[in-house]
Design brief:
- The protein has about 500 residues and is α+β, with helices and mostly antiparallel strands.
- The chain folds into two domains: about 5-260, Glutamine Phosphoribosylpyrophosphate, subunit 1, domain 1 (4-Layer Sandwich); about 280-450, 3-Layer(aba) Sandwich (Rossmann fold), CATH 3.40.50.2020.
- The protein has 20 helices and 23 strands.
- A hairpin with a 3-residue loop joins strand 7 and strand 8 (about 190-195).
- The radius of gyration is 23 Å and the shape is globular.
Length: about 500
Amino acid sequence: MDFKQLYPHFIEEFDDKPKEACGVFGMIAPGEEVARLAFFGLYALQHRGQESCGIATFDNSNVFIHKDVGMVSQVFDEKNLSKLKGDIVVGHTRYSTTGSNNVCNAQPVLVSHKDKKIALAHNGNLVNANLLRESLIKNGYSFESTTDSEVMAKLIVQELDKGNDLTTAIKTTFSQCKGAYSIVIGTNDYLIAIRDPDGVRPLCIGNTSSGKYVIASESCALDIIGAAFVRDVAPGEIIFINRQQKLNSNLFVSSIKPHHCIFELIYFSRPDSTFKGLSIYHFRKELGRQLAREAPVKADYVISVPDSGTPAAIGFAEESKLPFGEALIKNRYIGRTFIQPSQMLRELGIRLKLNPIRDIIAGKKIVVVDDSIVRGNTSRKIVRLLKDSGAKEVHMRISSPPVQWPCFYGIDIDSREQLIAAKSNSIDEITKFIEADSLKYISHEGMIKSTSLQREIFCTACFSGEYPIEIPPELEGAKLRYEQAASN
């Protein structure tokens, strides 16, 4: 059990960002050390989930798997990596959005049908998982985990039990699934990639210098193993790749209407990844530039809340013709300590994670640029930290619109009760709560303008309340619904 499980309220005090679901990685590469390559791929995707991780490999008829609670560097070592033999690999790093953080919920999910083994890794959230799960239970299928990922894996087995071949089973399974899912599947013979018809979560294809295919959540995972980005997996696309590197692609829906999660670009994706040819780093800088145009302020310095707020802060500084200063130094290891927090540590709060450089701050009017405000607790602590360090004024600028609505597609915000912008009637109230001298958000229109892409291709539900995939009313606040059902 890690620190966050032991002391969730302590971590929450200074961990006020939305959490993404997962990162997925897959590769089919005869002659390569695929488990080791997957290890490095997952390392690059660690930002997408730090609760648990796993790798499954296929060596013809044999399958090997290792998964556990913890980060990639904690779960894997030379000893267990050497046992993961084979030339097909599926990897996963998880943050829980359906089901709690237990080892039984770690992925990949491994299921069997006769002599066929299937390992499934999933990023996203199904909105009809409850109905599908109930149907499977009625048909005699049991569950070892409390995730919607196992629901999909068991649906595939059910279709195989009906006598369908693997291609038909996969198509039939995902034609029943509603919600967000970017999937990598390994079998004895294939590497398979599937993306939901709305394309909510990212998934891309790469190719190594020796012509071996790679599937990953983000292009940064391709870069780390020396693979070149080929293209995104299209919304509604199923891809089968065999050991001869023959790629077979088709759509399992008659039409698609993409709704890519715009929060992926604003916060979740690594800045060295790309989206539709758009550099995430440069997009975030443009958000900062647009924010400076919309909400200028007279100040001495622009600083960021590291690390995700830094590109926007640089853009804001450049557009405002103000100096950018690195005034908050981040301790990147605080989340992994096992030391029990004393009252003294609780009182230190945000100082455990961010330490100010006083000679930049003292006596100055400071603009602080961050990518989002969720509960508001961390923003308030940052403002207090800067003022305690002698800041004359603290002006908060946020490079996304107010987060007012929960996400049911793979972000760990399933209730409006968690959102300060949903509970407060005005920005003035939020400004007062965080104790800033001023607070401004980028406009919805300015956010879209910064992408240079069409509004229609994005999901902006967390800002607008416009959900592209219908949400059953019982889903609100239902992250742990399967655990609750089991205990009743």
